[in-house]
Design a protein that fits this description.
With 281 residues, the chain is α/β, with parallel strands linked by helices. 41% of the residues lie in helices and 22% in strands.
Length: 281
């Protein structure tokens, strides 16, 4: 069985106001994979993420990191967040430094590095993702897309094994969305497990290895993304719509013709081959 880096077992979470956000949720995050967490607003995605990095302690249930139950002492949480980084949907909830380099160095400082070492790590991180020229810019003067990148860089500077991102492309124009996706792919190719939530089913279908559908604070299904997003009953129950690529492939009779169609290029290639077959016949 592939290594499970992070697991949620029967998680329940009730807010002080009495609202139930998680209700018996189960989830396994496989090391080295790209996982998309899908669900309508209010399905429990953000609360789940806050439980998965120790910000929230579940009302009942267990979070396991590398197969062992997590603790909630200061020492436990520090060790936990060395391995699991969380990037919030709104970067303004995360950026704390006056300048970009101060913000990105904040995480390494909290991990015990000296100021000099933290700045070195921050500069290395910025150089690696192509934003070294941002170093001395005031964080509050950055665009929304730039602040998203900075929030991600702040987490990457702590070199976690797993990065969790809450709606990383929300509110971005197409060019910034593409840049964020390129960064996510680079993070993954560097050996980091990536988990993210999104309402964009087309993006999830093309990007992810695995997907989980949440509804009413519980897990409806988890598995390979192509299989999960093809489960019409669960998708309807979660108030989600299948990705356009999958719908198009089904409509044209291509969905069962070999490997799943997971990108526009694959769809065009499949259509081309189908056209050649029809011409030959």
């Amino acid at each position: 069985m592939p290594d499970c880096i992070l697991e949620a077992r029967d998680l329940h979470y009730r807010y002080p106001c009495g609202k139930v956000a998680l209700s018996g949720l189960n989830l396994r995050v496989t090391a080295g994979r790209k996982l998309a967490v899908l669900g309508a607003n209010g399905s429990g995605k953000t609360t789940l993420f806050l439980c998965l990095n120790g910000t929230y302690k579940p009302t009942t249930g267990t979070v396991l990191l590398n197969g062992k139950p997590t603790g909630y002492t200061r020492t436990d949480l520090l060790a936990w967040r060395k391995q699991v980084g969380l990037v919030f949907q709104d970067p303004d909830d995360q950026i704390v430094g006056g300048t970009v380099i101060q913000d990105i160095a904040f995480g390494p400082l909290n991990l015990g590095h000296s100021h000099e070492e933290a700045r070195r790590i921050a500069m290395e991180t910025m150089d690696r993702i192509g934003i070294a020229d941002f170093a001395e810019r005031p964080a509050h003067e950055l665009s929304h897309g730039e602040r998203k990148i900075i929030a991600m860089a702040g987490i990457l500077a702590m070199k976690p094994k797993l990065v969790i991102l809450d709606e990383p492309t929300a509110g971005l124009d197409p060019s910034w969305t593409e840049r964020i996706i390129e960064l996510l792919n680079a993070i993954h190719q560097n050996g980091t497990t990536v988990v993210l939530s999104t309402h964009n089913m087309d993006f999830a279908y093309e990007w992810a290895d695995e997907a989980v559908i949440l509804a009413r604070g519980a897990t409806l299904c988890l598995g390979p993304v192509g299989e999960v997003l093809a489960r019409d009953e669960e998708m309807r129950s979660a108030r989600l719509y299948p990705p356009l690529l999958l719908q198009t492939a089904r409509y044209l009779g291509l969905a069962g013709d070999g490997a799943p169609v997971r990108s526009r290029r694959q769809l065009l290639d499949r259509l081309s081959k189908s056209k050649i077959k029809n011409t030959e016949s």
